[in-house]
Design brief:
CATH class: Alpha Beta
Number of domains: 1
Structural class: alpha+beta
CATH superfamily: Tgt2/MlaC
Helix content: 40-55%
Number of helices: 7
CATH architecture: Roll
Number of strands: 5
Strand content: 15-25%
Order of helices and strands: HHHHHHEEEEEH
Radius of gyration: 18 Å
Length: 205
Amino acid sequence: MIYRLLGLFAFLPLFALAQDLGPEELVKKITEEVLAAVKSDKQLASGDRARAIKLAEEKILPHVDFEEATRLAVGRGWAQATPEQKKKLVQEFRNMLLRTYSNAIGAYEGQTMKVQPVRMKPSDTDVTVHNQFIRPGGKPVLIDYSMRKTDNGWKIYDIVVEGVSLVLTYRSEFDQVVKQEGIDGLIKRLAQKNTPAGVGGSKQS
């Protein structure tokens, strides 16, 4: 028991540090850690799914505001959902994003990144961090991180790649499902999509 407690206390300063980071610094931290992991782990770079999921769980997901991301993706249907339905929607959308993130991790191999300075006021609670992923011999890929300040520090709620929102791409599909099958129908559809991928876990950040 004492060793578990010591392990917990060892992580507390890291958690506090992440909470204190500004949006620009947090994006740098996340991307640098992911790039370093891909560079040092050949199995990860070659597409090892279990390692990719583990990396996403440890380095990316703790910094994502899943409730806000789900609310934006579900759109008008969010207001119709009960608290229990919202909880299920967030969990299933989280699992879907985990699958998306883990599938994309291998593509980071050989890339470098450049985070643009963020111009913001001390009172700002919603900002966009502009980032460039630079590929050898290729055109830089523009990626924007939409972030908002929460009680647990800055969190990412959307990622926009070359002008295409990861979260909002789902809205029209989700809206159509809600119209035809209701909120429970959407939850069922998401669960069906997530089950074959073997994405587990019930914790939320």
